[in-house]
Amino acid sequence: xxxxxxxxxxxxxxxxxxxxxxxxxxxxxxxxxxxxxxxxxxxxxxxxxxxxxxxxxxxxxxxxxxxxxxxxxxxxxxxxxxxxxxxxxxxxxxxxxxxxxxxxxxxxxxxxxxxxxxxxxxxxxxxxxxxxxxxxxxxxxxxxxxxxxxxxxxxxxxxxxxxxxxxxxxxxxxx
Length: 175
Hints:
Number of strands: 2
Strand order of the largest sheet: 1-2
Strand content: under 5%
Order of helices and strands: HEEHHHHH
Largest sheet: 2 strands, antiparallel
Mean pLDDT: 76
Helix content: 55-70%
Low-confidence stretches: 1-9
Shape: rod-shaped
Radius of gyration: 29 Å
Structural class: mainly alpha
Number of helices: 6
């Protein structure tokens, strides 16, 4: 006999089971879609190539940022999604290169180039730490939401248990 969603929501979840975030039915913890209500529980799995490309293009890799800035100053900052900084370094490098005509560019262009590489690297490290903190906060939120759902279920069970204890004491008094 198949159980209905109402029956599932009142029973305890076992190991490897979770509550649906929409209807509250007990489902497999690995389920992507609730079989009762059809609501997606989590994103579909990604391939390792997709996740590697996402990591590459989201910024925050200090080595890639430094290499891009070494190719042309400002590219590392653009990779870190800092448009203004990238444009400042690119224009600064072009101006410094143009000043080679008056001999100051021999010192200024390499200085701008090296500082652009350094800046791209350090800013990418900061961005990586920021992304890591954000992903940690997301995981904490998911955990606290699932714990809250578990606490509600435990509270309901405790209330049911107390009611059954009260009924027993009434029965004992009648005897």
